[in-house]
Amino acid sequence: MRELVEIGMGRTARRAYDLEDIQIVPSRRTRSSREVSIAWQIDAYRFEIPLMTHPTDAISSPAMAVRIGELGGLGVLNAEGLWARHTDVEELLRQLSATVDEGNEAAAVRLLQQWHAAPIRRERLTEAIGKVASSGVTVAARVSPQHARDLAPELLAAGVEILIVQGTIVSAEHVSRFCEPLNLMEFIASLDVPVIAGGVGDYRTAMHLMRTGAAGVIVGHGAGASTSTGDVLGIGVPMATAVADAAAARRDYLDETGGRYVHVIADGGMRTSGDVAKAIACGADAVMLGEPLAIAAQAPGHGLYWTAAAAHPSLPRSHITDVSRALEIPRGVIGIDTLLFGPSCDPRGTVNLFGGLRRALAKTGYSELKEFQKVGLTVRC
Q1: Contacts of 184 (CB under 8 A, 6+ apart)
Q2: DSSP secondary structure string, 15-75?
Q3: Is 287 helix (H, G, I), strand (E, B) or coil?
Q4: Three-class secondary structure of residue 355 per DSSP
Q5: What CA–CA distances, in Å, run from 227 to 29, 150, 166, 223, 234?
Q6: What is the rounded CA–CA span in Å between residue 210 and residue 197?
Q7: How would you write 80-96 as a 3-class SS string?
Q8: Each residue of 173-228: pLDDT tens digit?
Q9: Whole-number pLDDT of residue 230
Q10: Nearest-CA neighbor of 119 among 142, 152, 86, 94?
Q11: Residue 299, Cβ neighbours under 10 Å: how many?
Q12: pTM of the model
């Protein structure tokens, strides 16, 4: 039963929980971590770790997407990002880093707004996707709902195998008098590749997106120290509750359809390997990480992190955060291999993210992710 609290006369609100509010309960058995699988499969695509990268230019360059793929995850390019608009992205990001180092975040945000005002150049987009496709790893790209219809044919022709339709908040029913909204159900049915859509934060919207034919639903909007959606829009659902609600929608949709399984991908609220484990325990099939990967030496943002919403022309909803400074980890020291799989000398859980997940399964006696979704949970008082 939902726990409602009265916030005023005639007005109630539901009590919800962040990942930091819950903890995993050990079971009666343990097992060796060498006997644990944290592999994830969506449609015909199998990944050795349940990882998608958040589609921000701070994380997902073509080179980074390739390396993530080689390590067993799924790197997601932003088809509307800098690599789709400019030829000198590395130089632009160095300029951004220098501006942040000067302490002028407003000027840095203006730079992103200015660079994203440039038109998408189809040849640059095709070239970026081609670099990933030629490596042999699975190719994924993100588009906004506003541009999905226009960009999808070229993305698929360039080699995209998984398409992500993602905005801060995505619904299956967008109402507009000014333009023809994307009919997500018709759009997905017209494609030959799996589509992952989001973000969502509640049961009803997750269910609606599942009914469009999406192969996966993204829960959250990359919430973390960098995201300011709550400050700007006042919108947000704590991640533990949001993931659990989407998992409930997945279960009910599975019953409704007689067996069609839609994956739940948690996006936001995760800083450590323990947070990743708790997101899976709440019902996620995989996680979409952004900010925790920013400290990797290969990350194009040079230790900085922001989401695509930072470049909105009139209402940016992301800070440009110096993650390396916040974690007191020098830039360029930790490689993405070490960040994902260790070894680590950092006791905070910010390094060896998926080694930590594997050990969490082992310590609670589970051998695979689907089993681990049934683990017991407690709420901090």
Answers
A1: 145, 165, 172, 197, 209, 212, 214
A2: ----GGGEEEPP-S----GGG----EEETTEEESS-EEE---TTT--HHHHHHHHHTTSB-
A3: strand
A4: helix
A5: 39, 28, 15, 5, 12
A6: 9
A7: CCHHHCCCCHHHHHHHH
A8: 544 444 567 889 999 999 999 999 998 999 999 999 999 999 999 999 777 777 77
A9: 77
A10: 86
A11: 28
A12: 0.94
Detail the DSSP E strand segments found in 235-366. 263-268, 286-289, 304-305, 321-322
Q: Residue 44 and residue 193: Cα distance in Å, rounded? A: 10
Q: Do 250 and 210 meet the contact criterion of CB atoms below 8 Å apart?
A: yes
Which residue segments constitute the domains of the chain, with CATH numbers given? 20-379 (3.20.20.70)
Q: What is the bridge-based pairing of β-strands 195-200 and 11-14?
A: unpaired
pLDDT reported for residue 232: 82
- Please provide residue 235's backbone torsions phi and psi, each rounded to the nearest 5 degrees: -105, 135
C-alpha distance from residue 15 to each of 25, 202, 281, 305 (Å): 21, 13, 19, 30
In this prediction, residue 176 carries a pLDDT of 43
Residues 6 or more apart whose CB falls under 8 angstroms from that of 367 comprise: 31, 35, 36, 37, 361
Which residues in the chain land under pLDDT 50? 174-178
Question: How high is the pLDDT of residue 180?
Answer: 67
Residue identified by tokens 């759009």 is 187
Sorted by sequence, the CB contacts under 8 Å of residue 186 that are 6+ apart come out as: none
Residue type, position 63, single letter: A
* pLDDT, tens digit (0-9, with 9 covering 90-100), for 129-168: 999 999 999 999 999 988 999 999 999 999 999 999 997 5
Rounded Cα–Cα distance for residues 293 and 60 (Å): 10
| pLDDT in the model for residue 179 | 56
